Amino acid sequence: METEEMEANSNGTSLAVSFFKGEEELSSQMSSFNEVTTQIRELEERGMEELREIKQQGPRSIKMSFQATPTLLHLAVRSLLRNEALAVSGLQDLPMELFPPLFKEAFTHKRFVVLKAMVQVWPFPCLPLGGLMKMKASYLETLQIILDGINILLDQKVHPSSHKLRVLDLRAMHKDFWNVWAGDEAAAGSLEVKRKKKTQDRGARVVAKQSLKVFIDMCLKPKALDACMSYLLLWVEGRTGLLGCKKLKISTIALRNIVKVLEMLDLDYMEEVEVCCTWKLSTLASLAPYMGQMRSLRKFLLSHICIPVPISLKEKGKLIDQFTSQFHNLEYLRELSLDSISFLEGQLDRLLRCLKVPLETLSITDCQLSESDLKSLTQCPGIRQLKHLDLSGVILTNINPKPLRVLLETVAATLKTLDLENCRIMDSQLSALLPALSSCSQLTTFNYLRNPISVALLERLLCHTARLSRLTLEMYSTPSEEEDEKQWRERMDQKQALQEEFFHNPQAIDIESEDFSSLPPEVKHEILTDMKEFTKRRRTLFEAMPEVDGSAAIRETPFAEDGSSTGAECLQALKKTD
């Protein structure tokens, strides 16, 4: 018995010694911290005394150092990070105002132990990591550490009430959050949650299935994803609904890869989608159901959709309906942009009748539209509150101006910007539009470039637009009295024939030939300008193509710094790409 009592006393003594040693170490650390604080305060007091002396002595020459003096906060953060174990153990008691500067310092100096621990006790609803790092390979290790910390939170069956983190935001925003540390600015970390709440107010959000969401903006390109994005997709695989995306840009024709990524995303949070690659109509139709799941979508941009030649009218109509029917689900769509869409002519009403809410922006550019398409626009309830209308590149030369006039009258109370560049509107057509145009009282910008206009009609046009008090920008081509409407039509027909030949077979046009040289200077100039623009656009499209035989599928076109080039250079560049 005596032996047992002696052993117990010995164990108790050693525990007490260990306890007191721990207290002594903690006390020592706190003493060091207090000493640093005291020294800083003494320096501040000494500095104030020197300033008072300077004021008393009056003006004199002073040498100043522009090197910023560390603040008390930064010195405290650096002192805390000298002992990572102490920093981690004290996180529970750390004031929330100190979390952003401590996290930023740990991030900068790659104190991964502290970062991982801080993620688990982050006191704000949102951790805006994207404001500190880019999704590049150099940040891969940091991203892995952060996601490891998130894993620990997700693996907890019971979510502790002390854990406030709801959003890990990897988008390149919220940079101001990291430049402040206290007061109202610290609430910037909840910006994402506030935005989400606003969206919920308009009914676009559904109740989150996960207690935590990860947000990212994505751009799907032909080349492989970078290391960070690849790791994130691997990490999120199997965790349905965890990854949200607000902005998605697609510039690849790899359908399988697109579908794989879309399957991983919670599409309820999608707000902006941009498709800028040469898809076939069948590809668009096959991906349309995913678009229908994007119930929060506000902005949709689609460009360069083509139709294979061997397709029946019935099959074409079926594919178009598969796409347009998805607009029934887009209750919050505000901006719609359609550029170079080959199936749109005669089919616009299929899309318009599926719009659920009024649009703010409608852009239909470089498309062929029929008179019936313009009539369907005037009858669509979804365009009656338009603020921005862009019809540039839609050829209206042979179309009755009445539907466009009715359209302008319909949106006159709300329209702010109107773009009719290169619509080839004739004087007689413009004359019919003038009363409707002058009724657009909110108009601020009007683009009428690359349309033929006489001096007399330009004067009338300016008289009408002068009544628009909000109009601040007007753009017109130089008027010409030297050719009448018939001559202009002949010139446009000649130009269009050459353009079509050029687009289908660039090698067939010889700008050194007598036929080309005999053209009027203004026609040659316009053709060469269009060739240059087409070459630029073609280069952009080729950049989205995968590499062939290990070599890039496009070469740079030789344009000067001012964007100019000769027609021969344009043709030569195209021949190289072919």
Which key phrases capture this entry?
single chain; repeat; elongated; 578 residues; leucine-rich repeat; LRRC14/PRAME; alpha/beta; 46% helix; 13-stranded parallel β-sheet; PRAME family member 12
Describe the protein in words.
With 578 residues, this protein is α/β, with parallel strands linked by helices. Among the domains are: 38 residues, no CATH class; 93 residues, no CATH class. Helix content is 46%, strand content 11%. The chain is built from 20 helices and 13 strands. Strands 1, 2, 3, 4, 5, 6, 7, 8, 9, 10, 11, 12 and 13 form a 13-stranded parallel beta sheet that branches. The longest helix is centred in the first third of the chain and has 56 residues. It is elongated, with a radius of gyration of 33 Å. The C terminus is likely disordered. Keywords: Leucine-rich repeat, Repeat. InterPro entries: LRR_dom_sf, LRRC14/PRAME.
What's the short story on this structure?
Helices cover 46% and strands 11% of the residues.
Detail the topology: elements first, then pairings:
Layout lengths: L1 H56 L14 H10 L2 H6 L9 H10 L3 H9 L5 E2 L12 H16 L11 E3 L21 H11 L11 E8 L6 H10 L6 E8 L4 H10 E2 L5 E9 H12 L6 E8 L6 H12 L10 E7 L6 H5 L8 E5 L5 H8 L9 E3 L11 H9 L6 E3 L7 H12 L6 E4 L6 H11 L7 E4 L8 H20 L9 H4 L3 H23 L23 H11 L1
Parallel strand pairs: 1-2, 2-3, 3-4, 4-5, 4-6, 6-7, 7-8, 8-9, 9-10, 10-11, 11-12, 12-13
Protein name: PRAME family member 12
InterPro entries: LRR_dom_sf, LRRC14/PRAME
Keywords: Leucine-rich repeat, Repeat
